[in-house]
Amino acid sequence: MRIWIDITNSPHVRFFAPLIAELEARGHEVSVTAREYAQTVSLLEREEIPYVLIGRHRGKSLARKAWGLLSRSLRLVAFARRHRFDVAFSHASNDLAVAAWLLRIPHLIVHDYEHANLSYAVNARLASRILVPDAIPAAAVIAHGAPPERVGTFPGLKEHVYLDAATVAAADPVGVRRELGVDDARALVVVRPPATMSAYHRFKNERFDALLETLASAPDARVVLLARTPEQRAALAERFGGRAIMPEAALDGTSLVLAAACVVSAGGTMNREAAVLGTPAYTVFAGAMGAVDRDLVARGMLIEVGEGTVVPTSGAARREPWFVDNREAIIAELEGLGGHGR
After folding, report:
1. Residues 80-139: pLDDT tens digits?
2. Domain regions of the chain by residue span
3. Degrees, nearest 5: CA angle 216-219-224
4. Residue 335 predicted with pLDDT over 80
5. Domain 172-304 has CATH 3.40.50.620
6. How far apart are CA 194 and CA 228, in angstroms?
7. What is the C-alpha to C-alpha distance for residues 191 and 128, in angstroms, rounded to an integer?
8. Rounded to an integer, what is the distance from CA 66 to the centroid of its chain?
9. What pLDDT, on a 0 to 100 scale, did the predictor assign at position 46?
10. SS3 annotation, the chain
């Protein structure tokens, strides 16, 4: 089976890496296209995943996003015409949704945030199959226009696809502290800023700004600030360049989260990685909280930062890791959609 995967954002690289390896081990032929955005390219190269780079992120403007969707989708169509793909696969790639629909290629989408309205406006209607974590009610996806029979769920989180006992065993938290130059006397605090270039984040996050100021000033901690884009990095460097570590190269995410005393994020993926790995996690997301994060809060795996919430930079207890085996369920959906083994 010829499988086409489109990767448009850096967190999706880790999601797809073990799936690509497993699909190829089963004899499938996998081709990857990618969009230049955040750390996507550097992570693909770190994972040694061959890819064809097509297009780039078009910024926050809705008009530019619309043009980017049209132009990149057409470029993807041109790319795919040189192949004979049986099935397409993405993590909410609108560009691939349009291209696959135009080419009549079945398209499996995995999504994990039901409030990404602009994304669902396209892919909920065009995708052949949409899978979401079982914490998200199918009705939330159907409400965006997806036919009920096309919506399914998988157990756990998308982060469970690439985080398991073997991944933890191979991690090197001591090495990543050494790489960052953080001595043993100081707590390592990992901070991920808001996704300010995304359509679902069109507002200021003053609570995040205030918390980052507090954490960067803590004498017993060293903040590792993971900017999403060069523009965001430049803006943050003006305020925190001397008080936070801002790595230029991609780091091993599992090692970093295991090395951290806590993870603070105004997004989602790193907090969910911390929840899976047992590292104290704090969310400063200013948008509508998704069902996945609400479930983690209810389980005590994620703490929502509110007025007066104190984020301890040391001394917080770690939990046992939480693993869920869900790769097979996702691969089975993909193989079924592509006609393999029907």
Report:
1. 999 999 999 999 999 999 999 999 999 999 999 999 998 999 999 999 999 999 999 999
2. 2-163+325-337, 172-304
3. 40
4. yes
5. no
6. 8
7. 36
8. 22
9. 92
10. CEEEEEECCCHHHHHHHHHHHHHHHCCCEEEEEEEECCCHHHHHHHCCCCCEEEEECCCCCHHHHHHHHHHHHHHHHHHHCCCCCCEEEECCCHHHHHHHHHHCCCEEEECCCCCCHHHHHHHHHHCCEEEEECCCCHHHHHCCCCCHHHEEEECCCHHHHCCCHHHHHHCCHHHHHHHHCCCCCCEEEEEECCCCCCCCCCCCCHHHHHHHHHHHCCCCEEEEECCCCHHHHHHHHHHHCCCEECCCCCCCHHHHHHHCCEEEECCCHHHHHHHHHCCCEEECCCCCCCHHHHHHHHHCCCEECCCCCCCCCCCCCCCCCCCCCCHHHHHHHHHHHCCCCC
Q: Are strands 52-56 and 303-304 parallel, antiparallel or unpaired?
A: unpaired
The candidate with the shortest Cα–Cα distance to 312, out of 333, 291, 281, is: 281
248 φ, ψ to 5°?
-90, -35
Residue 60 confidence (pLDDT): 61
> With contact defined as beta carbons under 8 Å apart, do 135 and 112 qualify?
no
Distance CA 84, CA 29 (A): 11
* Homologous superfamily assigned to 2-163+325-337: Glycogen Phosphorylase B; (3.40.50.2000)
Structure tokens at 24: 């190829």
Q: How confident is the prediction for the chain on average, in pLDDT?
A: 92
Query: What percentage of the chain reaches a pLDDT higher than 70?
Result: 95
Q: Which residues pair with 283 in a beta bridge?
A: 265, 304
Q: How confident is the model at residue 52 (pLDDT cuts 50, 70, 90)?
A: very high
> Which one, of 76, 70, 74, 27, lies nearest residue 51 by Cα?
76
Q: What angle do CA 240, 283, 136 make, to 5 degrees?
A: 145
Q: Do domains 2-163+325-337 and 172-304 have the same CATH topology?
A: yes
Sheet architecture: strand order including 87-90: 52-56, 29-36, 2-7, 87-90, 107-110, 129-133, 151-154
* CB contact at 8 A, 245 and 239: no
pTM: 0.92
